[in-house]
Write a structure and sequence with these properties.
CATH class of the largest domain: Alpha Beta
CATH topology of the largest domain: Chemotaxis protein chec
Helix content: 25-40%
Radius of gyration: 36 Å
CATH architecture of the largest domain: 3-Layer(aba) Sandwich
Strand order of the largest sheet: 1-5-6-3-2-4
Shape: elongated
CATH superfamily of the largest domain: CheC-like
Order of helices and strands: HHEHEEHHEEEHHHEHEEE
Structural class: alpha+beta
Strand content: 15-25%
Number of helices: 9
């Protein structure tokens, strides 16, 4: 039932009816709660994400290992300090990747048997010029190449790419056994079409430090290439690999590889400063006077580092050196 009117309200109602005015009943104000704003996320049906966040995380961890292995391999190959670091892992269309590349640049097209399809490894021209200059005996400086590479330069870059392929197979060994193989080298991104423009690729971008120069490197692998092993690309796989690395058999495997590594050993008999004129006049039978005393131990270098001291001698009519002292670790300074 409705509320009972008071006498004052009844008198007011009768007065309004007799005067002919309209009676307006005041409605109680009801507060209406505002609807929360809907969170709308844009979705492009032409570009469907193929890689989950877990895939991206695992690929980042995987290629951090690749960067460490390649840094060691290039440092030994170029005889200079090289450091690689992963700065980004993202998925995008192949068309977007192609438009982001400078022209010209060095694009190495390679395959990853038993996986089917081509992939790309891109080296910036400034970074490539450092590699070429160093391998030709220079200090490793940027030389601003803006032309097609010569046959000799392509061969030199090919030797570096061999190290890239080996490092990639080592890094991926926990997922699947790959046998990377170089298929070609191009310098114009428009001439490289490994997949249709709209196909999704995974792009891993590296920051490479060659002495004082910092330059980008990038690795592009289409989704269709990785699709057969996508189920193995997970954090669980990486954690199982970590446990495997702690096993004694894995440690023994690493030790065997280290023990089988070849190192150059040098014995420095002495040094002498002479003029170019004297070098030109040198002939058979001439004697060079060295600055080292006869009774001083000789420096013995292993891999370019001074590790031992020794004395020269003969063993069965063959030159030999007897170790007299083992030197402690010294800080390595890059030239």
């Amino acid at each position: 039932m409705g509320d009972i009117l008071s006498q004052a309200e009844i008198d007011a109602l009768l007065s309004a009816l007799s005067s002919g005015s309209e009676v307006v009943a005041e409605r109680p104000q009801v507060e209406v709660a505002e609807e929360p704003a809907r969170m709308v996320r844009l979705y492009d049906f032409r570009r469907q994400d193929k890689f989950s966040k877990e895939h991206i995380r695992t690929l980042w961890m995987l290629h951090e290992g690749f960067a460490r292995i390649l840094s060691t391999a290039l440092s030994a190959h170029l005889r200079m300090m090289v450091q690689l670091e992963v700065v980004a892992v993202e998925q995008l269309t192949f068309d977007e990747y192609g438009r982001s590349l400078p022209n010209p640049t060095i694009l190495n097209v390679f395959t990853l048997p038993p996986l089917v399809g081509n992939s790309l490894f891109e080296i910036n021209l400034d970074t490539a010029s450092i590699i070429i200059d160093r391998m030709l005996g220079g200090p490793g400086k940027v030389t601003r190449i803006r032309r097609d590479l010569s046959d000799i330069e392509r061969t030199l870059i090919g030797t570096v790419f061999d190290r890239v392929m080996f490092s990639l197979s080592e890094a991926w060994s926990s997922i699947t056994l790959l046998q990377p193989r170089l298929e070609g080298l191009e310098m114009n991104p428009r001439f490289v079409q490994i997949v249709p423009p709209g196909d999704i690729v995974i792009l891993i971008t590296f920051e490479a430090k060659f002495a004082d120069h910092v330059g980008p490197l990038s690795l592009c692998i289409p989704y269709m290439v990785l699709e057969p092993v996508m189920s193995k690309i997970s954090a669980q796989t990486m954690f199982s690999l970590t446990r495997q690395e702690q096993e004694p058999s894995h440690r023994q495997k690493i030790e065997n590889r280290i023990f089988a590594t070849s190192l150059e050993l040098q014995v420095i008999l002495g040094e002498s400063d002479i003029r170019v004129e004297e070098i030109i006049e040198l002939g058979i039978g001439d004697v060079l006077k060295l600055e080292s005393p006869v009774d001083r131990d000789l420096a013995i270098l292993v891999g370019g580092r001074n590790k031992f001291l020794g004395r020269p001698g003969l063993i069965k009519n063959k030159l030999a050196v007897q170790l007299t002292e083992v030197l402690g670790e010294v800080e390595y300074e890059e030239e």
